Each structure stands twice: as structure tokens, then as C-alpha cells.
Amino acid sequence: MASLIELDSVEILVVIDNELDPISASPNPGVLQSGNLKDVAFREEAQQPDPDGEPFREAKMENICCGAHGLSLIITGIRGEQKHTILFDTGPEERAFELNAKRLRADLANIERIQLSHWHRDHSGGMLRALSMIDEARRGGGAASSSPVVVDLHPDRPFLRGVKSPSVGMTIALGKDPTFEEIEAAGGEVCKSDQSHAVLDDMFLISGEIPRTTPYENGLKYGVRLQEQHWIDDSLMKDERLLMCKVKGKGIVVFTGCSHAGVVNASRHAFELGGGTPLYAVMGGYHLADAEPTHIQSTVADLKELDAQVLLAGHCTGWRAKFEIQNQMPGRLVPSFVGSKYTI
């Protein structure tokens, strides 16, 4: 397996996440954050009210992003003059991706690769519109590459996934993911892989199956998939894959879509793939929103032992887990807010 090169920095633009907060600043000095109301105002030209008045900028409400249940991150690795950009997940639906990408004035033309963390609609739903918007941005000029966008996918795409909770009495399906054929028709170059591999000049590494070693991280409770007209157990979600990079002087930064494999399992696996390089940051969904209190406490205790300096918790993490992280590791929590840009 190729070794990751050290990046000078990594920039993460949050296009889709569950929460919005354009006021609060990052409490962690290891993370630079932009995307507050001042930054929103600077997306517009300065205005001059009258000959004697002072110029001003307006923070237009229609330039503020909207939250949605899902995740989508534009991640750019920087090393000297070299940059590579990957889109990690695409959110739950096309309208949300398009709306926020336009409001952010996101630089879509330079996205070279899309990675889907796992086959769930809240991560794949914006895929086809993302591909068409990347193509439109490239045609508009300024593209670094005219080659097709590689879409990195696990080969085991379920026909349909859902949750069969006893409290509901029936299966709740989560909506179909785009098919391989639809992704190719939208202009994507499908790359199917269930093995770990480095991409974009070894700036990033995409994992294979995440080993399950933590006893309390048992997958998606009541998770099922439709197979041959029958719902079967799918709690392990073996197609989930993480993304990671290595930042000079800091360590491994790992991105996880939902952590159905367990955020501790994902973090430990990233540490192993990194050859012992310290774990610096964990960003994405920790899937603790509906977890039992003891599960949350064990998770936070193990994350503390892993000694990650930045916990960019978002999407399906839940407020109780964030509260526990802040209590047990003051200053390390940086909530992931849609519309924000984080630099590590």
C-alpha cells in the first residue's frame, strides 16, 4: 500500500450537515474556521448608500446555507503549490446540495474525485446533481482537469436499505441510492473498490472494510437490506469506508460518514493504516444520536485514550455525545456546521 505524503494543510468546506450556526467560532486553536455572518457578507460586493455615507456589506439571508440530514464535505489537500480536491459524500438529495453549493460559491470545477462513504441515501442522494454541477463548472472555465470525475464506490450496492425497529412494527426504507449505471450516465467514472488505496498523488487514503474490534460497537441496530424480495439483517454495514490524510506536524485526519462501523473502530483503523502516526482529528458522523448513555460514555472514553486533538463531530453524532465530549475533553470539540470552512 502506498504511503501517505504529508500535507501542509487540509481545508474542509461543509456543504451538507445537520446543523447550522453562522455565529459560534471554533473553540479549538488547532482549527481555523470561516463561514460566519461576516464571511457571508463578503460574498457580495460592497455597497455605497449615498455620496456621503460609508460603504457597507450586507449579510444576505439567502446566502446562508440550510441544514439537511446528511453529510457532504469538499476536502482539499495542500502541499506547497500542489492541491487536490475530493468530495466526500453528497448529502441526502439534489436540491440541498445545489442550494448550499451555490450559496457557498463552492469551487466545484476542481473536484477530481468523489468518495461515497457507504450506501445510504443521506450520503448518496445528491450524487447525480453533484456530477452535473461539476461538469457545468468545468465547462464554465478554470478547470484544472478535463478528465472525468472518478466516483469511488464500494462494489456491494444494496437494492434497498432500511431499519426494522420493533417499536414501529414495520421496516422503514431509507430510499434507493443511485445505481452504477446512473452515475456513469451522469458523467462519473465508476471505480469499485473494497480494498484500501491511496488516491490523488497519495494525498488521501480510502480504506477497505473497517475491522470491528470494539465490543460495544455493533453496527446499525435493526439495520436491514432488501434481497431477493426479503428483508435480511444488514446491521454490520460492511461497505462503510473511511477517508484519511496526514498533516505535517499534526498527524492523521480521518473522515467518517456515519460511523456505523463505530467511530472508535474507524479511528483505530486509521491509526493502523497511518503506520503509527498520531491521530489528530476525527470529522464526520459518530452515529451516537440514539445510543445508550453507557455506549456514549465508553466511546468518549476510548476517543480520549486515542488522544485525538480535534473532534469535528457532525451529522448523526447527537447533542448528548457532543455534550459528553466537551465535558470529558474540554476544548477538543469543534461542532461541524453546514456552511463553515475548517482548516487544519
UniProtKB/TrEMBL annotation:
Pfam families: Lactamase_B. CDD domains: DHPS-like_MBL-fold. Residues 79-127 form the Metallo-beta-lactamase domain. GO terms for molecular function: transferase activity. Coiled coil: none annotated. PANTHER family: METALLO-BETA-LACTAMASE SUPERFAMILY PROTEIN, METALLO-BETA-LACTAMASE SUPERFAMILY PROTEIN (AFU_ORTHOLOGUE AFUA_3G07630). This is Metallo-beta-lactamase domain-containing protein. It comes from Zymoseptoria tritici (strain CBS 115943 / IPO323).
